[in-house]
C-alpha cells in the first residue's frame, strides 16, 4: 500500500518519501559515520578549495602522490586562475564521477568592462542571459568545439564599481563563464572579460565546508604517522554526502548483495523511494543504514516502485559496495 512516510527537506530539494514496506534493523553493514579511517578513504570525497595557480589535473596529481592512493579524480575542471569548490574523489568513489560532473554549479566572479557603461544598463543586459544560451567551447578546451546550449538558471549583478562588475551565477554543468563575460561585453558594445572567478558550489558541495591542500596533506600525515584520525575525518566526507542531490531508493538487506554483484533491483527488494522519480532518471540505491550501494537508471516511476507486484525498478550503472558486506540471500533461492 502506498504511504507517505516523511518529508525530506534541504536547500536543494524537497521530496516526499513513499513507503512500500518496512524491515526491522539488522547487524549488517554500518552507517557511513561509523566507518574506519581506511573505509572512509576507500569511500571518500574531498571538498577541496582549489587555489589559484595549478590546474585541476595538477591538483589531483599532487594529492595522488602525497597520499599514495591508487585512484584519485576530480569532478569539474577549473582553469588554473579559478579558485573554489573542486570535488576530489578517492578510490571506489571514483565510480560516481559521471554523476558529479553533471551537477549544477554556482559561481561568484568579477567581470571587467572595457568601457564606461551606466550601472542600470549593465544590470539589464546581464539579466538577459537567464535561461538557455548558445556557447562554443574555447580553443583551449578538452571537449569538441561544437556549438551547444547550456542553461543559466539565475544570474545577478551584486555590485558595480567603475568598470568592475561583481556577479553571481547559478548554471548548468559545462557552462563557460568566461564566454558569458565576453558576450555581455558584446551586447554592451564596449567589450568585457572575466577578471576573477570562484566556484562556490558544485552540486551538494559548498565552499563553506571546503578544505585546503594543506589540510589534506596534514590529515594524511597525522593519520599515518601519529595514528590521529581527527583531521582526516574533517577533511574527507563520505561519498553519500556527495550524491545527496540524487533521488533515493532504499532497499532490503537481502537485495544489497545481489546489487553489489551487478544485478538489477526488482520491486520486491524496494523498501521506500523518493517521490518524483520518472523512468530514465538517475537514482541512488541506499541501504537502511544510509550506505550507498549503487547509482543507476530508474525503469519506472516512484509510484510504480511501491505498488507494482513485479518488474525491474532500477538498473545499476555504477556499483560502489563490495560483495559480501551483506548476506547472499539471493543465492539460496
Task: Describe this structure as you would to a colleague.
The chain is α+β, with helices and mostly antiparallel strands. The protein folds into 3 domains: 3-30 and 246-332, Roll (Archaeosine Trna-guanine Transglycosylase, Chain: A, domain 4); 35-92 and 205-238, Pseudouridine synthase (2-Layer Sandwich), CATH 3.30.2350; 105-189, Alpha-Beta Plaits (2-Layer Sandwich), CATH 3.30.70.3190. 25% of the residues lie in helices and 34% in strands. It has helices at 37-42, 56-67, 97-101, 119-127, 177-188, 213-226, 230-235, 239-242, 253-260, 302-307, and strands spanning 3-9, 14-19, 44-50, 72-74, 83-90, 105-113, 131-135, 148-161, 164-171, 192-202, 205-206, 236-238, 248-251, 265-266, 270-274, 282-286, 292-298, 312-319. The strands form 2 sheets. Strands 3, 4, 5, 6, 7, 8, 9, 10, 11 and 12 form a 10-stranded mixed sheet that branches. Strands 1-2-15-13-16-17-18-14 form an 8-stranded mixed sheet. Strand 8 (148-161) and strand 9 (164-171) form a beta hairpin. Helix 2 packs parallel to helix 6 (213-226). The radius of gyration is 22 Å and the shape is globular. Residues 1-13 have low confidence and may be disordered.
Amino acid at each position: 500500500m502506498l504511504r507517505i512516510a516523511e518529508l525530506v527537506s534541504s536547500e536543494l530539494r524537497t521530496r516526499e518519501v513513499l513507503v512500500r514496506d518496512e524491515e526491522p534493523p539488522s547487524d549488517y553493514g554500518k552507517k557511513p559515520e561509523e566507518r574506519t579511517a581506511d573505509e572512509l578513504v576507500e569511500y571518500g570525497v574531498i571538498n577541496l578549495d582549489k587555489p589559484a595557480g595549478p590546474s585541476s589535473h595538477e591538483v589531483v596529481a599532487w594529492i595522488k602522490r602525497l597520499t599514495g592512493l591508487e585512484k584519485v579524480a576530480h569532478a569539474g575542471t577549473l582553469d588554473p586562475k579559478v579558485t573554489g569548490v573542486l570535488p576530489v574523489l578517492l578510490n571506489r568513489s571514483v565510480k560516481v564521477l559521471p554523476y558529479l560532473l553533471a551537477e549544477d554549479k554556482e559561481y561568484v566572479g568579477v567581470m571587467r568592462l572595457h568601457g564606461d557603461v551606466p550601472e542600470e544598463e549593465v544590470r539589464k543586459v546581464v539579466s538577459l542571459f537567464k535561461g538557455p544560451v548558445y556557447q562554443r567551447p574555447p580553443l583551449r578546451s578538452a571537449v569538441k568545439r561544437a556549438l551547444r546550449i547550456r542553461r543559466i538558471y539565475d544570474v545577478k549583478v551584486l555590485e558595480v564599481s567603475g568598470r568592475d562588475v561583481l556577479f553571481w551565477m547559478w548554471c548548468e554543468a559545462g557552462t563557460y563563464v568566461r564566454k558569458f563575460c565576453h558576450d555581455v561585453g558584446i551586447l554592451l558594445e564596449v567589450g568585457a572579460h572575466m577578471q576573477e572567478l570562484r566556484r562556490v558550489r558544485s552540486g551538494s558541495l559548498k565552499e563553506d565546508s571546503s578544505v585546503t591542500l594543506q589540510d589534506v596533506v596534514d590529515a594524511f600525515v597525522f593519520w599515518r604517522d601519529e595514528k590521529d584520525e581527527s583531521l582526516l575525518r574533517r577533511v574527507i566526507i563520505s561519498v553519500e554526502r556527495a550524491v545527496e542531490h540524487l533521488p533515493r531508493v532504499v532497499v532490503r538487506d537481502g537485495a544489497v548483495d545481489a546489487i553489489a554483484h551487478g544485478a538489477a533491483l526488482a520491486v520486491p527488494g524496494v523498501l521506500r523511494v523518493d517521490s518524483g522519480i520518472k523512468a530514465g532518471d538517475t537514482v541512488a540505491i541506499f541501504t537502511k543504514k544510509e550506505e550507498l550501494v549503487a547509482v543507476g537508471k530508474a525503469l519506472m516511476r516512484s509510484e510504480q516502485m511501491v505498488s507494482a507486484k513485479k518488474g525491474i525498478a532500477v538498473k545499476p550503472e555504477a556499483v560502489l559496495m563490495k560483495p559480501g558486506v551483506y548476506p547472499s540471500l539471493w543465492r539460496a533461492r
